[in-house]
Design a protein that fits this description.
Elements: E1 8-9, E2 15-19, H1 22-25, H2 38-43, H3 61-74, E3 79-83, H4 86-89, H5 99-114, E4 118-124, H6 130-134, H7 142-158, E5 164-169, H8 171-181, H9 191-215, E6 221-226, E7 231-233, H10 238-261, H11 266-271, H12 285-289, E8 295-299, E9 304-308, E10 335-338, H13 354-366, E11 372-377, H14 394-412, E12 417-423, E13 442-445, E14 450-453, H15 455-466, E15 468-469
Parallel strand pairs: 2-3, 2-12, 3-4, 4-5, 5-6, 6-8, 7-9, 8-11, 11-12
Antiparallel strand pairs: 1-15, 9-10, 13-14
The structure holds beta-D-fucopyranose (FCB).
Length: about 475
């Protein structure tokens, strides 16, 4: 019975926060010199995003950021993870910085600091300037250089006030959903392009780490956020375990090995040899990619269960953000993706907090001593504002309680988890799902832009205030 569980105390210096991303909340798509990103183009293309939704207005955060910061302060959030918009800061992706774009983040950061909220900035949460995509996007090596230049511009202006910087958010999604299955912008479906994009994203990360270190004070922390997968074979059968090895390679080791050990895993190179010869990897790239980091961000929602193919039928896809006709995974032939058992969120994602514990303890063992941050965790449910104006979301509270319990267990097991950021502060533009999926702890009425903290926001505020997790009542 959960109501008999003892309260769980988190470390006093644990960093609590909530997360968002620029394209999902800002709106003001054409204002103050911002140019289109691949998500503007993609969402304005009929058939790409449910309901034809776009981020043109989103939650109008660009104009309402003061109110949103006040709301965070009211909820007592000590930290806020957000992303900077590349096409706002450097329209077109190259050339000089856009002063008006940098001014917006300057105001936002000052507003956060004035309320005692620590800004945690991500440089790339998927909004590549369209001009760079027109020149090849992440399949073009030059995009990595452009990214490092943009990182330097952003850090030059904001680095005196932002202590924690993240280069990329979930490069797996950028490469494999953007160029593999095509369910995300730019909507290309080509496995060789996905692997090329993957490498250039990692190169961009490495070059940006160097650029950030050159600009930032030595006390600044530089990180990367990955959506690593808690991969499980359906059974202990060797064929299922082989499927799990392959997906572990393409979801996890294809990132962890180059970033932390300066090499690509031999089995992944072999598994994908029929897709590409990897000749886009040049001498010196892996040394760039493996520059030391101060922490690693983990985004976790649900585990990944795989099995050997069922010869009786086509492989069902479970790619997280929207399926699609084509697989996101290069070289996944012979693999089935199955939903884990049990309760599901509105995304159809099974609720399984054990996967988070598995991932965190694995990272403790594989990367001893590296501080970890849970940079995203949360759930979508079909929330609505009831006639009294309240938004009751007991399922989200239960989800958060279970996952924070897993984080607490991991800390007790010696995992250096330093913080947790709830996804998301606000209901927002959920990529290919548009506004149909609500991840916020604050409800947004998109017609009026009215914000209403859900029950989960009040519950989370109390966890943050007390530093203690109590069973939901
Ligand atoms: C993550 C993304 C975030 C949001 C959540 C639900 O993969 O980083 O923007 O879409 O999923």
């Amino acid at each position: 019975m959960t109501d008999q569980a003892p309260p769980l105390a988190f470390p006093a210096d644990f960093l609590w926060g909530a997360a968002t991303a620029a394209y999902q909340i800002e709106g003001a798509a054409d204002e103050d010199g911002r140019t289109p990103s691949i998500w503007d183009t993609f969402s304005r293309t009929p058939g790409r995003v449910r309901n034809g939704d776009t981020g043109d207005i989103a939650t109008d955060h660009y104009h309402r950021y003061r109110d949103d910061v006040a709301l965070m302060a009211e909820l007592g959030l000590p930290a806020y993870r957000f992303s900077l918009s590349w096409p706002r800061i450097r329209p077109g992706g190259s050339g000089s910085a856009n002063k008006a774009g940098l001014d917006f983040y300057d105001r936002l950061v000052d507003e956060l600091l004035a309320h005692g909220i620590a800004p945690v900035a991500t440089l790339y949460h998927w909004d590549l300037p369209q001009e760079l995509e027109d020149a090849g996007g992440w399949t073009a090596r030059i995009t990595a250089d452009r990214f490092a230049e943009y990182a330097a511009l952003a850090a030059g202006r904001l680095g005196d006030r932002i202590a924690t910087w993240t280069t990329l958010n979930e490069p797996w999604c950028s490469a494999f959903l953007g160029y593999g299955s095509g369910v995300h912008a730019p909507g290309r479906a080509d496995p060789a392009a996905a692997l090329t994009a993957h490498h250039h994203l990692l190169l961009a990360h490495g070059l940006a780490v160097g650029a950030l270190r050159a600009e930032l004070p030595p006390t600044a922390r530089v990180s990367l956020t990955l959506n690593l997968a808690a991969v499980r074979p359906l059974t202990d059968d060797p064929a299922d375990r082989e499927a799990a090895r392959r997906i572990d390679g393409l979801a996890n080791r294809i990132f962890l090995d180059p970033v932390f050990h300066g090499r690509y895993p031999a089995d992944v190179l072999a598994d994908t040899a029929h897709v590409t010869d990897w000749s886009f990897v040049r001498d010196g790239d892996l040394a760039e990619i493996s520059r030391p980091l101060d922490s690693l961000g983990i985004n976790y929602y649900t585990p990944t269960v795989v099995a050997a193919d069922d010869p009786a039928g086509p492989a069902p896809r479970q790619d997280g953000h929207g399926g699609g006709e084509r697989s996101a995974w290069p070289a996944d032939h012979g693999i089935r993706f199955l939903p884990a058992e049990g309760e599901r969120t509105a995304m159809g994602w099974p609720v399984d907090a054990e996967g988070l514990y598995e991932l965190l303890t694995r990272l403790r063992d594989e990367l001893p001593g590296l501080p970890l941050l849970v940079t995203e965790n949360g759930a979508a449910y079909d929330d609505y504002s009831d006639p009294s104006g309240a938004v009751h979301d007991p399922e989200r509270i239960a989800y958060l309680h279970a996952h924070l319990t897993a984080v607490h267990r991991a800390i007790a097991a010696g995992v250096p988890v330093r913080g947790y950021f709830l996804w998301s502060l606000l209901d927002n533009f959920e990529w290919a799902y548009g506004y149909g999926k609500r991840f916020g702890m604050v409800h947004v009425d998109f017609a009026s832009q009215r914000r209403t903290p859900k029950d989960s926001a009040r519950w989370y505020a109390e966890v943050v205030r007390s530093g203690t997790l109590r069973p939901p009542v």
